[in-house]
Design goal:
Layout: E1 6-11, H1 22-31, E2 34-40, H2 44-56, E3 60-64, H3 76-85, E4 91-100, H4 108-125, E5 129-134, H5 137-147, E6 154-156, H6 163-171, E7 174-178, H7 190-196, E8 202-204, H8 226-237, H9 241-256
Parallel strand pairs: 1-2, 2-3, 3-4, 4-5, 5-6, 6-7, 7-8
Helix pairs in contact: 2-3
Bound molecules: zinc ion (2 copies).
The site of one zinc ion has 4 residues, from loops.
Length: 258
Amino acid sequence: MTAPDLFDTHAHLHFPEFAGDLDAVLERARAAGVRRILTIGTDVPTSRAAVAMAAREPDVWAAVGLHPHHAAEADDAVLAEIERLAASAKVVAIGEMGLDYFRNLAPRDAQERVFRSQLGLARRARKPVLIHCRDAHEDTLRLIGETDVRDAGGIMHCFSGDVGIARRCLDLGLLVSLAGPVTYPKPGALPEVARYVPGDRLVVETDCPFLPPQPHRGKRNEPVYLAITAARVAELRGEPLADLAARMSENARALLRL
Ligand SMILES: [Zn+2]
Ligand SMILES: [Zn+2]
């Protein structure tokens, strides 16, 4: 049996959790069919690390950005550095960016300021946006709508809303990305979302080292487990995994222009 053609659209491979065994992690991922991985910065140091990793690994691309958790420390110099890094080789998207009202690690006004700045930056760079949204759908969707990202598009990463939110994301020009939680025993509205989103607007991700799919919960997540999440989504949609995986990879490649 040949492995499905998988694209991990949201990973943090350059995080310290992978420093000791990155080569083995990449080998396992490749063997499971993960042909491409987008590794994503969350502040200036991790954005630099993402760019460096993409330069070393032929099947890894990078995104640079400021996670809402780091919004309070993001002054003009930090934003300028992200904009500079955005022009590096193999940087194919801007993010992750967005709003997180669940952990609220930065004040909301700072989160909004930094999110808005990066939406503008992505527009100038003509690159897709990678959106993080936790318990903040109304404000997140409003800010995306104000900027209008439809030219370059983007991804609502680790989608956590319901069908109504999914429809609004699609209307704003975003793809919907499902992660490990769709495999959990209490997946909320995610099974319905997995069936609702049109096949040409859906992608999958690990968000590793976070959020491993059900059989690996409590451990470090890694790209090889993307196959479990993709298989669950295919099962929910009643589609063969190989077909869906190839289609989702094509969606990611089209968005990121790979
Ligand atoms: Zn995130
Ligand atoms: Zn992330």
